[in-house]
Design brief:
It is built from 12 helices and 12 strands. By secondary structure, it is α/β, with parallel strands linked by helices. The chain folds into 2 domains: 167 residues, Rossmann fold; 116 residues. Helix 2 links the parallel strand 1 and strand 2. Helix 8 runs antiparallel to helix 9. The longest helix has 27 residues.
Length: 348
């Protein structure tokens, strides 16, 4: 990504966050991703780097399975509760939403800052429950990543709502590992979960030089042969068990937990960077595959997920960055990637 674009996005995020973060010397940072989605680990690291750059000490972290309201209250006395950003605000990924709602209910007396999210509710019942909880809190600030989420939040929630890019853009640049690309390879990092578009061809594609992978799954053998470094890291299950086992009883254990979380996030980020960097061009419907490819200066072709968050984000923040192409579906995206590959190799 050109330095001017990197500086612009960084300044946009810092301008949005600084008035609400810098008055504090400590905070809680909740909803650490113990699952393998590289994008959420990139957000975590960007958030940690930002808080450290502002002199804000992270004194408590948790994930949905080990949240303790009493320990959070004992550990963080003055600072706000900061909730991890991402794409899980709504009812598609219930564990994260339920944690968010519990925290808002448990701490009506503390400032709560929800970092940039995309919002999607399919159920009016779930939306009404969220509205009643969030609208009852006197000091809740909600950051969103795109215009549809901004309009939705302003329509349904009475709290302060602000527009802000994704915090993965605040990762230190030295965190990014660039792999040696394989000539002629197109990496298609494809969702296989409930956010995938319904008309995707996915693994049924037969396109020369294209490999279909995802960073939350084991990769096919041909991909391992193409690039050995894409093997699933062996540290993951061990560190996940470590995170789940350490009780949130003392500040010392919180230090150990934060160290393990940051290490896990960095190694997962390394894995994602190597996965993308093995190709000359990236095709994806994952938002953070687009963000990481852009940060790695990899040409990337993007198409939308099931409910519009990818296109909305690209339209708002990244569509004019050199090397980024937004397409109207999988087939168009793959054709565009082939055109880019051909131009890179000097073909017609």
């Amino acid at each position: 990504m050109p330095a001017a674009w990197r500086a612009h996005l960084k300044a946009t995020i810092e301008t949005a966050l600084d008035p609400f973060i810098t008055p504090f010397s400590e905070c809680a940072l909740v909803d650490f991703p113990t699952y393998p989605n590289v994008g959420d680990h990139a957000i975590w690291l960007g958030t940690v780097d930002y808080l450290r750059s502002r002199g804000v000490r992270i004194k408590y972290i948790c994930h949905p399975l080990n949240y303790s309201a009493s320990e959070l209250r004992r550990t963080v006395r003055q600072g706000p509760i900061v909730i991890q950003g991402g794409g899980n605000f709504g009812d598609l990924w219930q564990d994260h939403q339920l944690l968010r709602e519990r925290i808002v209910q448990n701490f009506p007396d503390k400032a709560i800052i929800q970092l940039p999210q995309s919002i999607h509710f399919a159920s009016q019942t779930n939306l009404q429950r969220a509205r009643s909880i969030f609208n009852a809190h006197p000091n809740l600030l909600l950051f969103v990543r795109d215009q549809p989420s901004l309009a939705f939040a302003q329509s349904h929630f009475s709290c302060k709502v602000r527009l802000c890019p994704d915090l993965a853009f605040l990762m230190r640049h030295d965190r990014l590992v660039r792999a040696e690309s394989q000539p002629g390879m197109i990496v298609y990092l494809s969702r296989g979960d409930k956010e995938a578009a319904t008309d995707k061809l996915g693994a049924e594609l037969a396109v020369a030089g294209l490999v279909v992978v995802d960073w939350v799954k084991r990769q096919p053998s041909k991909w391992k042969q193409a690039y050995e470094a894409t093997r699933r890291p062996r540290w993951g299950p061990r560190l996940v068990r470590m995170l789940q086992r350490i009780p949130t009883l003392t500040s010392g254990n919180q230090k150990r937990r934060l160290y393990a979380a940051n290490r896990m996030a960095q190694e997962r980020l390394d894995y994602g960077c190597r996965l993308l960097g093995a190709g000359q061009v990236v095709v994806t419907d994952r938002l953070h595959a687009h963000i990481l490819a852009t940060c790695l200066d990899l040409p990337n072709v993007v198409f939308d997920n099931s409910y519009g968050k990818v296109a909305a984000f690209v339209q708002e923040w990244t569509r004019d960055i050199p090397g980024v192409s937004l397409c109207n579906g999988e087939e168009e995206a793959i054709r565009k990637a082939q055109e880019i590959r051909s131009s890179m190799s000097g073909g017609g």
